[in-house]
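User: Please fill in residues for this 88-position structure.
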């Protein structure tokens, strides 16, 4: 089992997305109360690590596209991410 270590911002974004269904970028920003730049940077880092996927798929999301893009947790990392959030 991999041990994932999340920063505070990453943990906040993962919690707001949840583990059941995709969430729009604008909803994530509303839930986290973070700036658009911070949410976009955090989502891009989570996507580059493979923990989060965008719908439609893209390698990196731009600030203008983030609010209208859906994001979901990669099913391959659900167990490890839940453990990482539990350890926080």
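Assistant: Residues filled in for all 88 positions:
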């Amino acid at each position: 089992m991999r041990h994932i270590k999340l920063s505070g911002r990453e943990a906040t974004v993962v919690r707001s997305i949840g583990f059941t269904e995709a969430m729009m970028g604008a909803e994530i920003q509303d839930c986290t109360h973070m700036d658009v730049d911070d949410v976009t940077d955090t989502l891009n880092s989570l996507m580059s690590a493979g923990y989060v996927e965008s719908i439609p798929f893209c390698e990196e999301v731009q600030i203008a596209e983030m609010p209208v893009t859906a994001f979901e947790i990669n099913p391959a990392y659900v167990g490890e991410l839940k453990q990482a959030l539990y350890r926080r």
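For context: The chain has a mean pLDDT of 95.
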